[in-house]
Predict the 3D structure of the following.
Amino acid sequence: MNYRLIALDVDGTLLNDDHELTDPTIETIQEVHDQGCHIVLCTGRAPASTLPILEQLGLEGTMITHNGAVTVHADERGQSLVNEFAFDMKDIEPMLAYARREGIHFDVCTAFNMYIERISEYEKQMYKKFLISPKLVTSVSELGVRIVKFTLFAQSEVLDRVQQDWEEQKLYGDLRMIRSGELFIDVMSPEANKGNALKALAATLEIEPQEIVAIGNYYNDLEMMAFAGLGIAVENSPNDVKEAADAVTLSNNDNGVHEAIRKYFF
């Protein structure tokens, strides 16, 4: 099979646990790109914190960000919005009230900006690690903007309780709630996922699903892995993510993306 597009999750997949790209991974991605394969980063990150990864790979092109809620194109002229799935701030007011009451950190995102109401040193270090510079405001409810993602950041056991409470109370209404990482819960439009965004992008590029390889590590990667002709999970994925994949490669700390591309492309 001649694959024409590789969709890559970033954190926990493309990057190691130190949030670094390794030289073998960079070299292999550049080599397969030079042979004409499209490389698409598909991440929960915002465009601003995804672009440095794309630049470190020596590439430009389209990025699927905010877990599929926003697709942007990046080149020497800057970043331009290709597609977004947005919703009204009023749709998350019950969840905002819950997070404020329980003292759980949250942020809300438009396509290109992130807003927070408070921040401690713990959250500062998290944002620094992900190359994010959020804007501090008195109340996100007063911004008067449509948003693409609402995210909670807390310890795993706290988010376990939040998930249970919100599912029992249906606080997220018609929106979609996903666990995008052990320490993160995302709430987005029901249409927003990496699979739908990848499907739309592939259609514009006239690439069939069977010509796509998708590599990921977490539950927010399942839709894109299912859409692709070959869905690959890295070894550090939860067991049910690995079971849903067509194949499993080495972990993100063992150059799993590099190994998968060498195996299936060369």
Notes: The longest strand covers residues 78-84. The chain has two domains: 5-84+192-265, 87-188. DSSP finds ten helices and 16 strands in the chain. Residues 156-169 form the longest helix (14 residues).
